[in-house]
């Protein structure tokens, strides 16, 4: 069975060569496809990768065996894409899940161009949602066809390794921004590609040896020689893998992985921008107006007793309004993406919750819900339109629909309701990074100082702040005639007025904002939540939500429990009469004459107190600073050059040591033999074409010149003479070797001299076997 790789166009590769490259590319494709697993996480994706690789391999093998031109391979690939694309990438559109339908083909063609952006604007994983498997189908098919075709047909088979590498990089680019280290998959791909590369080189060497043996009609390698060569390759691979594992381990420990990855979905402009819509907290008082407070807004089934229905989560405050996301930073809560068939909420510790919501008088883009959403199903005649325009932010558990909800819309949601947090006294702040608060209302700091003690732990301070708000604050919406006046809004001036009034008077809009700002002052990441708290919720029965159920509360992030909901609002109770403003009393200060000091020190005895503040270092002279910066840059540059040149310096040092050991051998015969070997190595490094089985005279003839022929004759007589050669003979041989080495350098260009200096070809000349015996053995 012929296993030789093709050397010219039209040459058919052997089946052994085909099988080896196919298995190697299959393993590499499997490793590279691991970067796409966080995107899909479904059995359909596994089936797609396996089937697509089989189809792509069949195209490449057929093209290589039948000597198809490139255009025919491309045409067959397109045909396979159209025939297999629907069953594999859009299985829901296939007839009996096998044959493509007309609608499926149209969707496949559209997805070829549009699915890439859809994939990076949707919550992961996507499974087999709509046509989002099409990018994976395209990547695996092209990687397989191009990679295997290059391996089987190209003179530079190493180009085939670029195909799985490109697939690996594309998977990372399309992947999640969240913590998802590809080190394991990358290391596995590196190992597979390394062994593939070794196998390709072994095949090339085997083919070259076989061709030379056929031409010279002699055996060049024994079984032991081949085994030794394979063993050397495996040892080299093991060393490289060990180094790669060590470097990967150090990188995994040293490089932080908590930062979001800068991938495509982090750069793409999302279709839904929450900052294009007014803050839902701005219309808080509108729900409490008499015509809205009793109006049915939603009908909800499944909400537990005391349950809260979230409308939106707000985490950005500019002194005027609390809003969703921020326009000054890349806020995690401001990025809304499309929702596939489900979201994995396995990391949330809570109870499953299923809600059925029907929209009555509620209007707006925000979709009310509870807990961490796993999946949502819209019902009724508008289900498809609502599902296609639904966007979700998992960080803030806020959902939205482009165009807004309308009367008659209905949906069923399944989510995980987090368990209530433990005692706040032991809580410590979380690590979420929110947009900075640009304006702190007056009175916040003074009120906080009155609520908490400086030495208390953060959790105790948070608890004290909440108790202070609930104790000193009173609720009034200011919309009814029997309620004390209470201005709406939550800008900095309104929060300042809240803490300046006696008694403190406002409603959930003001207290939630004040509590969130004070929690931020205490070091806790915090945000405001707007939603409904139905008074009659409980037992899983249907409850009607009205405008009077509107409320606002806060969420703070703790190190142990993550985001937890807290109601900072005072209980509804009778508001005491407003206290009159206290007049400011101005009195003349009394002058107190201190008694004279009994032992006043003389002015000369006074010494200035020792300063506890270290003097700043004297500024460095500009010239010295420039020299220091230049030396630092030069040092780092030299270090980088040393690292880059280290392999070449090691080769030069190894050759110098090899020459020194040969010249310093104990016996004159060994020195003479070593001199000849040094001459042969020099010829090899200067790429003199010498057959592996050449004798000394044949090697000298290949080099050319009378001196090389004289050297070969002298070495043959010295080594085959019955008398032991003298050290003077060895010195003469080494002198001739030095002159011939100088002649090589003198007749070569600078580039050729450098290439010979760092060449490693001569290290493979004496690996044993026939080649070694011929060069070191008999003369001509």
From TrEMBL:
Presence of keyword DNA-binding: no
Residue stretches of biased makeup (Low complexity): 599-609
Membrane-spanning segments: 15-38, 45-64, 70-92, 132-152, 159-177, 183-202, 234-255, 623-653
Domain Transglutaminase-like: start-end pairs: 474-568
Gene3D superfamilies found in the cross-reference section: 3.10.620.30
InterPro entries per UniProt: Bact_TGase-like (IPR052901), Papain-like_cys_pep_sf (IPR038765), Transglutaminase-like (IPR002931)
Region span, Disordered: 569-615
One of the Pfam families matching this protein, by short name: Transglut_core
This protein's record includes keyword Transmembrane: yes
Alphabetically ordered keywords of this record: Membrane, Transmembrane, Transmembrane helix
Annotated PANTHER family: PROTEIN-GLUTAMINE GAMMA-GLUTAMYLTRANSFERASE (PTHR42736:SF1)
Protein name: Transglutaminase-like superfamily protein
């Amino acid at each position: 069975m012929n296993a030789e790789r093709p050397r010219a166009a039209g040459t058919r590769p052997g089946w052994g060569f085909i099988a080896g490259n196919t298995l190697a590319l299959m393993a590499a494709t499997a490793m590279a496809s691991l970067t796409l697993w966080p995107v899909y996480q479904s059995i359909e994706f596994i089936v797609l990768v396996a089937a697509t690789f089989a189809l792509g391999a069949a195209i490449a093998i057929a093209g290589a065996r039948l000597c198809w031109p490139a255009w025919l391979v491309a045409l067959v690939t397109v045909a396979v894409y159209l025939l297999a694309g629907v069953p594999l990438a859009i299985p829901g559109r296939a007839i009996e899940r096998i044959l493509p339908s007309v609608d499926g083909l149209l969707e496949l063609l559209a997805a070829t161009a549009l699915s890439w952006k859809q994939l990076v604007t949707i919550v992961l994983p996507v499974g087999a949602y709509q046509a989002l498997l099409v990018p994976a189908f395209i990547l695996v098919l092209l990687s397989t066809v191009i990679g295997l075709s290059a391996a089987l047909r190209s003179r530079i088979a190493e180009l085939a390794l670029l195909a799985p590498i490109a697939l690996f990089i594309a998977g990372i680019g399309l992947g999640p921004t969240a913590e998802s280290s590809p080190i394991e998959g990358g290391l596995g791909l590196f190992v597979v590609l390394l062994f593939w590369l070794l196998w390709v080189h072994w095949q090339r060497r085997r083919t070259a040896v076989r061709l030379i043996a056929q031409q010279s009609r002699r055996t060049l390698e024994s079984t032991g020689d081949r085994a030794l060569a394979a063993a050397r390759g495996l040892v080299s691979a093991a060393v490289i893998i060990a180094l790669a594992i060590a470097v990967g381990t150090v990188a995994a420990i040293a490089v932080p992985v908590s930062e979001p990855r800068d991938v495509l979905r982090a750069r793409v402009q999302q279709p839904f921008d929450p900052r294009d819509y007014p803050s839902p907290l701005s219309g808080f008082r509108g729900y409490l107006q008499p015509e809205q407070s009793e109006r049915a807004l939603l009908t909800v089934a499944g909400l537990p007793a005391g349950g809260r229905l979230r409308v939106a989560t707000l985490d950005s405050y500019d002194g005027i309004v609390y809003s969703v996301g921020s326009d000054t930073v890349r806020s995690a809560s401001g990025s809304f993406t499309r929702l596939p068939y489900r979201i994995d909420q396995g990391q949330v510790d809570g109870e499953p919750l299923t809600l059925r919501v029907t929209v009555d008088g509620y209007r707006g883009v925000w979709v009310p819900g509870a807990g961490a959403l796993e999946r949502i199903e819209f019902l009724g005649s508008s289900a498809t339109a609502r599902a296609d325009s639904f966007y979700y932010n998992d960080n803030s558990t806020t959902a939205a629909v482009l165009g807004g909800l309308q009367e008659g819309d209905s949906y069923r949601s399944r989510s995980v309701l987090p368990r209530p947090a433990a005692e706040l006294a032991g809580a410590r702040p979380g690590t979420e990074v929110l947009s900075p608060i640009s304006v702190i209302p007056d009175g916040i700091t003074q009120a906080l100082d009155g609520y908490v003690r400086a030495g208390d732990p953060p959790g105790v301070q948070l608890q004290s702040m909440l108790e202070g708000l609930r104790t000193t604050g009173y609720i009034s919406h200011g919309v009814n005639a029997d309620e004390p006046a209470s201005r709406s809004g939550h800008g900095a001036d309104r929060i300042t007025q809240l803490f300046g009034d006696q008694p403190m008077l406002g409603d959930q809009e003001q207290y939630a904002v004040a509590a969130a700002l004070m929690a931020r002052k205490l070091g806790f990441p915090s945000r405001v939540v707007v939603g409904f708290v139905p008074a009659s919720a409980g037992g899983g029965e249907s409850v009607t939500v009205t405008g009077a159920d509107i409320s606002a509360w806060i969420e703070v992030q703790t190190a142990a429990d993550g985001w937890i909901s807290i109601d900072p609002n005072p209980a509804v109770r009778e508001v005491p009469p407003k206290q009159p403003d206290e007049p400011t009393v101005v009195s003349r200060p009394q002058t107190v004459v201190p008694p004279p000091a009994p032992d006043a020190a003389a002015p000369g005895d006074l010494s200035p107190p020792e300063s506890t503040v270290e003097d700043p270092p004297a500024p460095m002279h500009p010239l010295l600073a420039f020299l220091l910066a230049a030396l630092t840059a030069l040092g780092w540059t030299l270090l980088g050059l040393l690292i880059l040149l280290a392999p070449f310096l090691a080769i030069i040092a190894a050759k110098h040591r090899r020459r020194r050991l040969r010249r310093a051998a104990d016996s004159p015969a060994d020195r003479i033999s070593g001199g000849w070997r040094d001459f042969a190595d020099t010829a090899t490094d200067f790429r003199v074409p010498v057959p592996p089985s050449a004798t000394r005279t044949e090697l000298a003839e290949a080099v050319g010149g009378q001196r090389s022929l004289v050297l070969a004759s002298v070495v043959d007589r010295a080594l085959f003479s019955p008398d032991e050669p003298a050290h003077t003979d060895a010195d003469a041989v080494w002198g001739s070797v030095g002159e011939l080495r100088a002649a090589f350098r003198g007749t070569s260009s600078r580039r050729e001299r450098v290439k010979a200096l760092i060449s490693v070809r001569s290290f493979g000349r004496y690996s044993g076997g026939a080649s070694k015996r011929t060069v070191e053995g008999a003369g001509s």
